[in-house]
Amino acid sequence: MGNKSGKKKKDPTVLTEEDIQMLLANTQYTREQIIQWHNGFLKDCPKGELDKKKFTEVYKEFYPQGKADKFCAQVFQVFDTDHSGKIDFTEFLIAISVSAQGDVKKKLHLAFQMYDSNHNGKIDKKEMEKIIVAIYDLLGETNRKGDNQPKQRVEAIFKKLDRDNSGTLSEQEFVEDTKELRDNEKGEEEEEEEEEEEEKDKNK
Questions:
Q1: Which end of the chain, N or C, is less surrounded by CB atoms within 10 Å?
Q2: Which keywords does this chain's UniProt record carry (predicted)?
């Protein structure tokens, strides 16, 4: 990125007090945890930045049986919030925090950004199919027939979420409706467990 403002470019290896305050406000980590994460990040990325190639290499270690390239390309563009082509420590830790500690809505907002590859604020069926194929590649999933076929999966998802039949999902539709479906399914599971417990008590 160019330095048009004339300001000295920040050293990406340095964790400033401003960085810490921003991370304290936007993650659930303590000051001590942020410093520990930063030390670990610098061990893996001595220059203080993670490029797409290194990011993909890290993912491949976790998913050696699959192809991580397509999935990583989608994830990387979401995490690279300033579109510099590199992820610095603050971008990295915010992404980790949302993935690991964020509430359901935050995670769904992150998922929406992954699906919305052209950044127009809507997900169409082609965008969703692209991500599903990327996830299959990542996991090494070879069974892509019947209900497991990417197009079939997309149709099933849109049938549940696309209430106005527009052929696209807005962020609000995706987040609110997915959360509602998830809560309903969780409630049904809890009811089934309670019924099973009652049956066990009767048979004692």
A1: C
A2: Calcium, Metal-binding, Repeat
Tens of pLDDT, residues 5-19: 444 567 889 999 999
Mean pLDDT across 168-190: 73
Host domain of residue 137: 103-192
Q: Please indicate, yes or no, if residue 132 is contained in any of the structural domains.
A: yes
Q: Please check whether residue 145 lies inside any domain of the structure.
A: yes
Instruction: Give the residue carrying structure tokens 């066990």.
Output: 200
| Contact call for residues 59 and 133 (beta carbons, < 8 A) | no
Per-residue pLDDT tens for 96-135?
Answer: 776 666 667 777 777 787 778 788 889 899 888 887 887 7
- Residue 122's contacts (CB-CB under 8 Å, 6 or more residues apart) are 116, 168, 169, 170, 171
DSSP-H helix ranges across the chain: 17-26, 31-44, 52-62, 69-79, 89-100, 104-115, 125-139, 150-161, 171-203
